[in-house]
Design brief:
Blueprint (H helix, E strand, L loop, with lengths): L2 E14 L8 H12 L5 H8 L1 E14 L3 E5 L6 H8 L7 E6 L3 E4 L12 H11 L4 H15 L14 H14 L4 E5 L7 H15 L4 E5 L3 H7 L2 E6 L2 E7 H10 L7 E3 L12 E9 L8 E3 L4 E9 L4 E11 L2 E6 L7 E2 L2 E9 L7 E11 L4 E15 L31
Parallel strand pairs: 3-7, 3-8, 5-6, 6-7, 12-19
Antiparallel strand pairs: 1-2, 1-4, 8-9, 10-11, 11-13, 13-17, 14-15, 14-16, 14-18, 18-19
């Protein structure tokens, strides 16, 4: 497979702070006066505030032709800087980027548009920049305008467009003029909800035609729905690069404080008392593999291992599920009135597919008993896992916004006209 993009040792240096220069004679006199009375000129103070920092540091990776690659990372990690360098909008301080094929970009509102030219003229200008002939652009023109929804204003100078109109037209041009490499920053942040739905459908079409796509997104649902590969940036460096689901797992687990498994090596460190103690817990998939991320249409299991140290107690294992500090539910076995003998037990709860909403869930694990009610241990933040939605799931009915709520079960519905 041929290489579409090669990023070789790319670094980018910027400078923090403000370097004041005298732009008016009054400022020069003010600084001269400060120096005369023994004070510090403002210009000298500001100069010391400037310091270099590296937005990117020795970034290298290769994207094969036809791959759809997401670039993720927290704010300030260097994502947008990297895209601008790949798109040749910004030059790297060191290193190089090699692009093979015509490249279309949509990084910021109006990027590549001339404000004095009309929408029509900018469509042809952008196509020419991509290396397309006038006849090629003309064949796509009606489709581009229709998709963008700005037809009544197509002969109006772009400087009079709203930011939303500019972005709609820019995305439409980038997606329809058949670039071999398409570079996009936050594709689903384009326009209103209706247009975002159109963008998602177009992106699905683009990614299925063998074109190379690179885009930045803060939506892990978008990344896992569209991308087969992912680059995780952290403080300007590549933290990881690989299959999207594995990289998204790492992104979610980074600094989370708890993960998909919890274990206690020494007996003295186990939560509990002289009756029962927690040995460990984990989140599993249908193959009993430990997981951190699960798709919404997959079953997910919560598992706990505990040791009963004394006979004669009716012990009830229970799991508590939270989503962003909302109490989702607590669950225990339906036949939980059994006296447990001494020994080690494993208790597992299965959450059915398409029951939970997408989001980051925290699991509390506990064992209690009744008559009297006693909590032997309760680890409230024992586990963490993430439910990822599929933006192309038919149950969404083309709705691509976030659904409210902790759970999102598929329920039985009847809709019938009254006679």
């Amino acid at each position: 497979m041929s290489k579409a993009i090669e990023v070789r040792g790319v670094s980018k240096e910027y400078f923090r702070g403000v370097h004041h220069r005298h732009t008016r004679f009054s400022e020069l006199l003010t600084d001269w006066g400060r120096g005369f009375i023994g004070g510090k000129p403002r210009n000298n103070v500001a100069r010391r505030e400037i310091e270099p920092f590296w937005a990117l540091k020795d970034v290298s990776f290769t994207i094969e032709q036809g791959q759809v690659v997401g670039i993720i990372g927290r704010n300030g990690s260097g994502k947008s800087t990297l895209l601008k360098i790949i798109a040749r909008i910004t030059a790297p301080t060191t290193g190089e980027v090699i692009l093979n094929g015509r490249t279309g970009t949509l990084l910021e509102v109006g990027t590549g548009f001339h404000p004095e030219l009309s929408g029509r003229e900018n469509v042809f200008l952008n196509g020419a920049i991509l290396g397309m002939s006038r006849s090629e652009i003309a064949r796509k023109f009606d489709e581009i305008v229709d998709f963008s929804g700005v037809e009544p204003f197509i002969d109006t100078p772009v400087k009079r467009y709203s930011s939303g109109m500019q972005t709609r037209l820019a995305f439409s041009v980038a997606a329809h003029l058949d670039p071999e490499v398409l570079i996009i920053d936050e594709v689903l942040a384009v326009g209103d909800a209706e247009f975002q739905k159109k963008c998602l459908g177009k992106m699905k079409d683009v990614t299925s035609t063998g074109r190379t796509v690179v885009f930045v997104s803060h939506s892990m649902t978008t990344v896992t729905s569209l991308c087969n590969q992912c680059v995780f940036l952290e403080h300007g460096e590549i933290r990881a690069h690989g299959p999207s689901h594995k990289i998204v797992d790492l992104y979610f687990s980074d600094g989370a404080g708890s993960g998909p498994a919890l274990g206690f090596g020494e007996e003295a460190a186990r939560p509990g008392n002289d009756i029962v103690q927690l040995c460990g817990a984990r989140v599993v998939n249908s193959k009993l593999e430990g997981v951190e991320t699960i798709r919404r249409d997959e079953i997910v299991g919560i598992e706990m291992t505990f040791e009963v140290l004394r006979d004669g107690h009716r012990l009830v294992p229970n799991f508590h599920l939270f989503l962003q500090d909302q109490y989702a539910f607590v669950s225990s076995p339906p036949d939980s009135n059994e006296v447990l003998a001494r020994g080690t037990y494993r208790s597992r709860m299965w959450i059915p597919p398409r029951f939970l909403n997408n989001g980051s869930f925290v699991v509390g694990v506990a064992v209690s008993s009744t008559a009297p009610v006693t909590i032997h241990f309760f680890e409230q933040d024992a586990l963490r896992f993430h439910v990822i939605d599929d933006l192309f799931d038919a149950s969404r009915n083309d709705y691509i916004q976030e659904f409210p709520g902790v759970v999102r079960p598929d329920l039985q519905w009847d809709v019938a006209q009254e006679k």
